[in-house]
Design goal:
The protein is mainly α and 373 residues long. It contains 15 helices and two strands. Helix 7 runs antiparallel to helix 8. The longest helix is centred in the last third of the chain and has 35 residues.
Length: 373
């Protein structure tokens, strides 16, 4: 008898996600090539920034895109049209738009294993005054890079709109509703990002405030994925509500798992650093819980070791990870399990019109208990 080796949950998810990612990348590449064909690179560096950052366009898991198309299949029992496939790529263009801006606001020079957009654009500034001080930015080179990355981000947001507008086989009313959803995402995400900046200097943060910020930033675009599916499927209100509840609970579990990976508290195979959150002092749920619960010397040691930037030592990392692993990890894992349960319950409220799509959405949720990248 041949013994079957268990397949890691992460690998199961990767196999089920790949078709969605391939389809998303196909449409993103097509839209980018359409733009590039009528906007050729010229003498000035500003005409080359988008090409320099194009490598970032194909990076990403495409969870949002997968939820939109699988959600549509579950709600309608039909395969998505080519127009809907293209329109749903608005979620990934919009996500890229926010990442370009996030990296400027967080002063991150890396986006996973690659240079961030502003860092790439800054390398194009080669005038003699590149190292001269600037007013808002550190140097004129930093000013140039950040400014061009902001313009690149605005182009990406326009790509999100164009993906919807050019979906040839979608009903005009569906397009209008999708564009309205994009606008609502804009308003909520920008408010969440503003609150995130406000919290950077706060030592104690009520968890309810953290939740409000996280749901506005991370969860809102996942809700946009569920809304895209429901709008295109013309789903009844109760089924749209169920899919949006699934997306919300998935997003919370996903973000909590991401925070564990981003601090190195659990084993990771992600491309980026597992030290970044600690070095930069990110106000994650892990930090919020630790700052609220720790007392005495343990609290002092944690706060002294957290968010020291370039001065962070291996001892600082060990101190923070030890505290988070002993005191906070069990709570966060329990919350991940609870949100997984609520996500599954939400899916059960939707008639299973497409079992393959249902299995994919289930796999997304299951993976958050053990995801390592």
């Amino acid at each position: 008898m041949v013994e079957r080796r268990a397949v890691p949950e992460d690998d199961v998810l990767e196999r089920s996600l790949r078709p969605y990612r391939d389809t998303a990348n196909e449409h993103l590449q097509a839209l980018w090539e359409e733009y590039a064909a009528i906007h050729p690179a010229g003498t000035y560096p500003s005409t080359r920034t988008m090409r320099g950052n194009a490598r970032l366009f194909s990076a990403g898991k495409r969870y949002r895109y997968g939820i939109a198309l699988a959600g549509y299949r579950l709600l309608s029992g039909q395969a998505p049209s080519r127009g809907l496939e293209r329109a749903s790529s608005w979620l990934e263009w919009y996500h890229l738009y926010t990442l370009f801006l996030d990296d400027i606001m967080d002063e991150d020079e890396r986006r996973r294993t690659m240079r961030s957009a502003w860092a790439t654009d800054a390398r194009l500034y080669r005038r003699p005054d590149a190292r001269s001080p600037s007013i808002v930015f550190r140097t004129r080179r930093h000013r140039y890079g950040a400014s061009q990355a902001i313009l690149d981000a605005l182009r990406l947001r326009s790509f999100a709109e164009r993906a919807i507008e050019d979906a040839f086989d979608l009903d005009p009313l569906v397009k209008v509703q999708l564009l309205a959803e994009l606008t609502e995402v804009d308003l909520v995400v920008s408010a969440g990002q503003g609150l995130d900046i406000d919290l950077e200097a706060a030592e104690r943060i009520p968890e309810s405030v953290y939740v409000r910020m996280s749901e506005a930033k991370t969860a809102r675009l996942y809700l946009g994925a569920a809304a895209t599916a429901a709008i295109a499927a013309r789903a009844p209100a109760e089924e749209r509500q169920a899919l949006e509840e699934y997306a919300l609970r998935f997003a919370i579990a996903f973000q909590d798992r991401d925070d564990l990976l981003g601090s190195g508290v659990v084993r990771s195979r992600i491309g980026g650093s597992s030290e970044g959150d600690i070095r930069q002092g990110k106000r994650t749920r892990l930090y919020v819980l630790a700052a609220a619960r720790l007392r005495g010397r343990e609290r002092i040691a944690f706060l002294r070791s957290y968010g020291r930037g370039g001065r962070t030592t291996p001892r600082d990392l060990t101190t923070v990870r030890d505290v988070l692993g002993r005191r906070i990890l069990p709570t966060v894992e329990a919350r991940i399990r609870e949100n997984q349960r609520l996500a599954r319950e939400a899916l059960e409220r939707i008639p299973p019109r497409d079992m393959e799509a249902r299995a994919f959405l289930d796999a997304l949720v299951e993976a958050q208990a053990s995801r390592v990248r």
